[in-house]
Write a structure and sequence with these properties.
The structure holds three protein chains of three kinds. Chain A is mostly helical. Chain A has 13 helices and no strands. In chain A, helix 6 packs antiparallel against helix 11 and helix 10 packs across helix 11. The two termini of chain A are 22 Å apart. Chain C has a single domain, classed as 3-Layer(aba) Sandwich (Rossmann fold), CATH 3.40.50. Chain C is globular, with a radius of gyration of 19 Å. Classes of the chains: A mainly alpha, B mainly alpha, C alpha/beta.
Chain lengths: 278, 272, 265
């Protein structure tokens, strides 16, 4: 990430064209793969027809028209707001709870089996239940997203609180900090990286959860658009909606990263961290 | 618990014992409380929204005895196992193949990593369109959802293998296939198991979600079918069974992980 | 000791490529030559960053050279092309590296037996030999322990006898006792000399500790700062068996130490 910043700074000094050429040269293999992928898709289209595989050009024009006409954007923002509201409702208690429980290890231990069970349970299987309770509107999707996000973030925040160095707490107490100061100045900053790891893992799940609930039953949103296009055998519509969904996931990851980098400037650059993806 | 707590506990053996009993009693009470709340909730909002817990348990027992539930469980497990095997095979094999062609790997890697972001569940309608309504779309879904975590773990694992261990093995005369089987494979087993723990339960959930949307068998079908026919007791029973299935799987995997990776020093950072 | 050297290094060059591909390449080793007769315990001493590890890596054939050659039993080994490298030269050159490089998923005994296993030589005789070596260095009773359950000194011992167990004619050692405390270090040096006495293998032992170089070696080479050249060649006349802990009190020690110290700069 820092290398990007550096190259940007030096880029301002050099000529723009030279830099573009250098970039193209450095990534020539990757560009080649992109061309092959698009060409392969086009070949599939020519071979089996637009009906099965749509076409690169068709998806692009549909996407642009959808953005300009606002229809695609309105579905996308509906899905995104489900994800964001659900994320907030799930993540806030999940972040706070481990801090409240810090002073009562007994309570944490008693809660543990329920939390582990909730973490492992297939939350998506609850989707029919939420639809039954909250109807086909936004509420059922928000509920599904919130419960999915809750357990992921809870365990990240918990491990953050547990990873706390007892030495730092002792140092603060020796320096005259009271319990609230310790929580505020020692425990919380130390746990922030863990909480953000939880956010980063939960992010794709929140959008995925919203889309799945929409696939099951909805009358708006990208999941609905995918399902609607599928029932009309409109592959271009499916691909366009899928592309938009992927774009939102990328946008979500990007914003979590931005916020994290802002908040964690004190931290040394991360090592290669283990990622397991969605 | 912090190191401080543990030290205190060790100083008083009786207190640690007391604490342990306290936790067990607390857990039993908590689960009892949840059950009572469920019952009260069911009585309050009515049987259409929340099924009576006693009726749910009765339903699970009768449907197990009639074999109906077992049939659906079998269907779900069949899809998840086959899909898992497919996803796992590709997820393991592909990184080993890519290892041999570093230039192609460098060119393809960003696209593979970008495709991680595609919400796989959203592909179901496409799979149904392409592959019909039998097992195939569900297998594709399960396979894809399993493939990604395994692929990423094995790929990163291979990349992070300690070069020095490989050199050591070469010097003492190990063949390349021996190095792949021993040094590389063992080095990545912790990564692989971390991915396995994520993807095996996920395979079952994926099969269930697939069954929500397509087909006429499996736990997912059982739940969704019950919901659509306003059989709330059935939906609750199905969800309970699905949850139990995944949780049992999780604990079995935990046990296996501890046994297979006994050589590894205990690290807390490995848990996510 | 016969006249024909077992291992020869002739005109060896090594450079690390400059950062931006421009011609600012850094020469680590330039035109380095020396030879080691059969059965000699050669110690090589040099300041840190003098390319000692790189030199051993090239002799062990896990790194390429940019010029010159390494000859083993009068045959030239191909070390200028990464594709034709033959690490360990068909198990004739053993290498005890700075890190112990034990396989963490194998127990101590399984680690020691690893070379025999991959060479297809794991028989009763090999097991007996491993058993004897384990006892000699005091690892008896730890056969079933995993590396992370051993102390640093024990791990070193295990990595040492893992190389000795398959009996390569030449053994390279790269500051094997570098990271240990003084007490463990002396103990391991004694162990090493005792083991060496059993078979009198040819050993090339790299270190940055002058006392260690004198205490262990038949001969000591002194390397300069990069690009590394040989700036001193000292036969160690202190008779064997040597008293490692009391080596500094030997009458020849002080003069040797002084001469070597002046060259290590």
């Amino acid at each position: 990430m820092t290398s990007l910043g550096e190259s940007r700074k030096s880029g301002a000094a050099e000529l723009g064209v030279g830099r573009v050429v250098a970039w193209l040269k450095a990534h020539s293999h990757q560009i080649l793969v992109f061309v092959i992928l698009i060409a392969g898709w086009q070949a599939l289209t020519l071979w089996r027809g637009v009906y099965w595989f749509s076409s690169p050009w068709g998806v692009l024009t549909r996407f642009i028209n959808g953005i300009l006409g606002g229809e695609l954007l309105s579905h996308a923002s509906y899905t995104a707001s489900e994800a964001v509201i659900g994320f907030v409702i799930g993540a806030i208690p999940a972040t706070i709870l481990p801090f409240l429980l810090r002073r009562w290890p007994m309570a944490t231990a008693i809660l543990d089996p329920v939390m582990v069970g909730g973490y492992g349970a297939p939350k998506l299987a609850l989707a029919p239940l939420f639809i039954l309770w909250f109807g086909i509107g936004i509420e059922s999707k928000v509920a599904l997203v919130a419960i999915t996000v809750f357990f992921i973030v809870y365990f990240s925040a918990l491990s953050g609180v547990r990873a706390l160095e007892p030495k730092l707490v002792q140092m603060a107490q020796v320096a005259g900090a009271n319990e609230r100061d310790v929580a505020r100045y020692i425990v919380f900053p130390g746990a922030v990286p863990y909480i953000f790891t939880g956010f980063r893992i939960a992010m794709p799940y929140s959008i995925g959860g919203a889309v799945i609930a929409e696939l099951l039953s909805a009358n708006r949103g990208l999941g609905y658009l995918i399902q609607f296009s599928a029932t009309n055998f409109d592959t271009t519509g499916i691909f366009t909606a899928l592309f938009m969904t992927t774009l939102i996931v990328a946008l979500g990851n990007w914003s979590v990263n931005i916020v994290e980098r802002r908040l964690l400037r004190w931290r040394p650059p991360p090592d290669v961290r283990m990622q397991t993806g969605t | 618990m912090t190191a401080q707590d543990t030290a205190l506990d060790l100083s008083e053996a009786s207190s640690i014992k007391w604490r342990r009993y306290g936790v067990i009693i607390g857990r039993v009470l908590l689960i009892g409380l949840l059950f009572v709340l469920w019952k009260l909730g069911a009585d309050a909002v009515g049987p259409i929204y929340v099924a009576d817990p006693i009726k749910v348990i009765q339903r699970i027992i009768t449907d197990t005895q009639s074999g109906l539930l077992l049939k659906h469980i079998y269907a779900t497990l069949r899809i998840s196992t086959i899909g898992f095997a497919i996803g796992c095979a590709f997820g393991i094999a592909l990184p080993f193949v890519l290892r041999l062609v570093p230039r192609i790997t460098a060119a393809v890697e960003p696209y593979i990593m970008a495709s991680v972001g595609i919400p796989k569940y959203a592909l179901i309608p496409l799979f149904i369109l392409y592959f019909g309504i039998d097992d195939a779309p569900k297998l594709w879904l399960v396979g894809l959802l399993v493939f990604y975590p395994i692929f990423i773990a094995v790929f990163a694992g291979i990349r992070n293998v300690d070069r020095r261990l490989i050199n050591m093995a070469r010097i003492v005369g190990a063949s390349e296939s021996r190095i792949a089987r021993e040094v590389i494979w063992y080095s990545l087993t912790p990564f692989f198991f971390a991915a396995l723990k994520i993807s095996l339960p996920r395979a079952v959930s994926a099969a269930i979600i697939g069954e929500f949307l397509v087909g006429n068998e499996g736990i997912g079908y059982f739940i969704e079918n019950s919901r659509q026919s306003f059989d709330t007791v059935g939906a609750f029973a199905g969800i309970l069974v699905a949850t139990a299935l995944v949780l049992v799987l999780n604990s079995v995997l935990d046990k296996i992980d501890h046994r297979v990776n006994a050589w590894r020093p205990k690290e807390r950072s490995m848990e996510i | 000791m016969s006249g024909q050297p077992l291992l020869e290094v002739r005109g060896l060059d090594k450079r690390f490529a400059g950062r931006s591909g421009r011609d600012t390449a850094l020469w680590v080793i330039k035109d380095l030559s020396f030879s080691v007769p059969d059965g000699e315990f050669l110690t090589i001493i040099g300041p840190s960053g003098s390319g000692k590890t790189t030199l051993l890596n090239m002799i062990a054939q896990i790194d390429v050279a940019n010029g010159g050659e390494v000859r083993f039993q009068s045959k030239s080994a191909p070390i200028n092309d990464p594709k034709s490298l033959n690490p360990g030269l068909n198990c004739q050159i053993g290498y005890v590296t700075q890190e112990d490089n034990l396989l963490p998923w194998r127990t101590t005994l399984q680690n020691v037996l690893f070379p025999l296993e991959v060479q297809g030589r794991l028989d009763a005789e090999g097991r007996a030999r491993a058993d004897m070596l384990m006892r000699t260095v005091g690892l008896a009773g730890f056969e079933g322990h995993y590396p992370h359950e051993l102390s640093g000194g024990m791990r070193k011992r295990a990595s040492l006898i893992r190389t000795l167990v398959y009996d390569p004619p030449v053994i390279l050692m790269d500051e094997p006792f570098g990271a240990l405390d003084a007490q463990t270090r002396a103990q391991l040096q004694e162990d090493l000399l005792r083991l060496w006495n059993l078979g009198r293998k040819t050993i090339v032992f790299v270190t940055h500790d002058i006392t260690e170089a004198i205490a262990l070696g038949d001969r000591t080479l002194v390397l300069s700062r990069a690009p590394a050249k040989i700036v001193g060649d000292h036969p160690i006349t202190i008779p064997r068996p040597r008293d490692i802990r009391g080596i500094m009190t030997h009458p020849d020690f002080a003069a040797l130490y002084q001469r070597i110290r002046e060259q290590v700069q």
